[in-house]
Amino acid sequence: MKGNLAAWAAGALFALGLVISGMTRPEKVIGFLDVRQWDASLAFVMAGAIGVHAVLLRLISRRSAPVFAPAFKPAPAKSIGGRLLAGSAIFGVGWGLAGYCPGPAIVAAGGLNVKAVVFVASMTVGMYVYRKLHPKP
Amino acid sequence: MHNFTPVPALMGGLLIGLAASLVLLTHGRRVGISGLWAGLFHPRAHDRTVRAYFLAGLVVVGFVSFIFAPHLLGQAQGGLGRMLVAGVLVGYGTQLGGGCTSGHGVCGISRFELRSVVAALTFILAGVLTVLALRALS
């Protein structure tokens, strides 16, 4: 139960970061992607998040195990290939169309924004389609 | 530079980095929102409860923001048809590419993993080209 509460708190903290940074506003994200009227805010969000996490993850990884799980999950042993490139490109097109990526969309859907609810519902369908087209053995 | 808000952006980013670190410390895994969400609906996922709690944190903060500061949630351009298409592309693409802005962009790059750097550059480039195309069409 403590583990679940920690997960809830982390999710809330993550969402608070998205809301404060303006990333739940699609116009801020589109502003970052718009080279003609560039808004660099998203780069500062990434820099802040990576700066903190890059340091803390190295400290945390010194532990023998996480607090509520038996072991640290190893990095996925996947290479750079067509799937990574094609998948990221397809994601980027959807991101540019709506100004939503999964995190901010779920937060905005929680805020009862109709467009975000539709986005999250169809995102779930896209994930289902992927699972049907590429079944794991 | 348009509507640039570096201070809240940096502050929010720090919180996101702290949240990702909290998940690593408590559950030993990286935060990829697309993967967490996909696993919630995966019939073989064994850790649905912890995923649900994390994602509930996102939803609750969204709802609280809606009550107290709805302008912080903004409004997407385009109609529901565009949201429908965009959602399917994001859902399919993140699964094929193995992550989104959080999994590749924050967690992968923090680990200096080259594949995440490549993924992030790819989805940013695709996003830039999409916005350029939308601007040209409208």
Write the SSE topology:
The complex is a heterodimer of chains A (137) and B (138).
Chain A: H1 2-21, H2 26-33, H3 41-60, H4 82-98, H5 102-110, H6 114-133
Chain B: H1 6-27, H2 33-40, H3 48-68, H4 80-97, H5 101-110, H6 114-137
Helix pairs in contact in B: 2-3, 5-6
In words, what does this structure look like?
The complex is a heterodimer of chains A (137) and B (138). Chain A has 137 residues and is mainly α. Chain A has six helices and no strands. In chain A, helix 5 (102-110) crosses helix 6 (114-133). The mean pLDDT of chain A is 96. Helix content of chain B is 75%, strand content 0%. Chain B has 138 residues and is mainly alpha-helical. Chain B has six helices and no strands. The model of chain B has no long low-confidence stretch (mean pLDDT 95). The interface between A and B is large, with 115 and 109 residues.
Multimeric organization = heterodimer
Rg of chain B is 17 Å
Radius of gyration of chain A: 17 Å
H-E string of chain A: HHHHHH
The main sheet of chain B comes to: none
Provide the succession of SSEs of chain B: HHHHHH
Contiguous uncertain segments of 5+ residues of chain B = none
Determine the fraction of residues in helical runs of chain B and give it as a percent range.
over 70%
- CA-to-CA gap between the ends of chain A? 33 Å
List keywords for this structure.
heterodimer, A: mainly alpha, B: 138 residues, mainly alpha, 75% helix, globular
Offer a concise description of the structure.
The complex is a heterodimer of chains A (137) and B (138). Chain A is mainly alpha-helical and 137 residues long.
